[in-house]
Design goal:
alpha+beta; Alpha-Beta Plaits; six-stranded antiparallel beta sheet; five-stranded mixed beta sheet; 34% helix; DNA/RNA_pol_sf; Reverse transcriptase Ty1/copia-type domain-containing protein; RVT_2
Length: 388
């Protein structure tokens, strides 16, 4: 979904039109490259022991999604579009008249660009290949409510939040000001076992998708996600707190500014040994395109950091990887990022390690992938900045 947010941010900053199209019965368009047989469907008379030989993909067939994408990919490439390596569902075509971008998600697609003739030609080409529905200007995509004004693009999941609250029967309950209690520590054994663990898992799954536009609950949702295997009453109470916070902030949305400069800046942070069971640290980062927030993450480290400096340094490495990918994605979208991307961190020692190429006794045990930040610093991809 970072690709979607980035594409919308670029469209807002450049005042590009956003069109939406949908393919009817997309999976039925896929061509099978393997021999597949199926039992006769109910209502079809067939001799005993006979099976059907599939000529086209069907919904429910494991091969269907891939077959459909290959069919769509072939059709788009015939229209002189290029498949981008940053996202294989992203296709672009650049000419002297401008650039056209197509982003596919299963059977829904966004088309944008500054070459209106090529956009119209692409839409006509797709209609000749598939049964298409022109949805008009982009307003609703993958559960995201999208509205546009002169100030920019508003991306909201307000209806989705209301549905979650209704399902959890929390539409009239009290509210809270924060999604998680300060310094909350929970063990897997805290509380009583839940009689219905599926409810916990369903709510957490819905909350995970809500983080597409709500960065303010990313850490809290990541925290409760670690207990989905065997949730207990204390963990469920933490989920209910997130829901009460959402009820108080149901209209909060993601705004992508039309006046935003197309430059990147990133912020990273980490706790140290915050997990009471494993002593693993947690990384948090956010990346802006101008004033528009396009990428964020809260994730527990794979290994244990021996110091707060190491935890911060590894957080910078995770952020650096996202910066490198975003710079490539923006280049594919026709945005050239010149100069290094500033990476803000509140740990001076971690910054010194990242910006100093000499060997440090204190860092000899750090995994090699964490030194990715130092490599990209030397390549002038990013610059490190201390912030409080």
């Amino acid at each position: 979904m970072t690709t979607v947010r980035t594409l919308l941010a670029v469209a807002a900053a450049r005042n590009l039109p956003l069109h939406q199209m949908d393919v009817t019965n997309a999976f039925l368009h896929g061509d099978l490259t393997e021999v597949v047989y199926m039992a006769p469907p109910p209502g079809l008379s067939a001799p005993p022991g006979h099976v059907c030989h599939l000529r086209r993909a069907l919904y429910g067939l494991k091969l269907a999604p891939r077959a459909w994408f290959e069919r769509f990919r072939t059709a788009v490439l015939k229209a002189d579009f290029i498949e981008r390596q940053t996202n294989h569902a992203l296709f672009t075509r650049t000419s002297a008249q401008g650039c056209v971008i197509l982003l596919l998600y299963v059977d829904d697609m966004i088309i944008t660009g500054d070459d209106h003739v090529t956009i119209a030609s692409l839409q006509e080409h797709l209609r000749s290949q598939f049964e298409m529905k022109d949805m008009g200007p982009l307003r609703y995509f993958l559960g995201l409510e999208i509205s546009r004004s002169k100030r920019g693009i508003l991306v909201s999941q307000q209806k989705y939040i209301s549905d979650i609250l209704f399902m959890a029967a929390l539409t009239n309950n009290r509210t809270v000001d924060t999604p998680i209690e300060l310094n909350l520590k929970l063990l897997p054994t805290d509380g009583e076992p839940l009689s219905d663990v599926s409810r916990y898992r369903r709510l957490v799954r819905m909350l995970v998708y809500l983080t597409v536009t709500r960065s303010d609950i990313a850490y809290a949702v990541s925290f409760v996600s670690q207990f989905v295997q065997a949730p207990r009453s204390a963990h469920y109470a933490a989920v209910l707190r997130i829901l009460r916070y959402l009820r108080a902030s149901v209209s909060r949305s993601l705004f992508l500014f039309a006046t935003s400069p197309l430059t990147l800046r990133a912020f990273s942070d980490a706790d140290w040994a915050g997990d009471v069971m494993t002593c693993r640290s947690t990384t948090g980062f956010c990346i802006f395109l101008g004033d528009s927030l396009i990428s964020w993450r809260s994730k527990k480290h794979e290994s244990i950091a021996r110091s707060s400096i190491e935890a911060e340094y590894c957080a910078m490495a995770s952020t650096t990887a996202e910066i490198v990918w975003l710079r490539r994605l923006l280049r594919d979208l026709g945005v050239q990022i010149t100069g290094p991307t500033p990476l803000f961190c509140d740990n001076r020692s971690a910054i010194q390690i990242a910006s100093n190429p000499v060997f440090h006794e204190r860092t000899k045990h750090i995994e090699i992938d964490c030194h990715f930040t130092r490599q990209e610093f030397l390549a002038n991809t990013l610059s490190t900045v201390h912030c409080l």
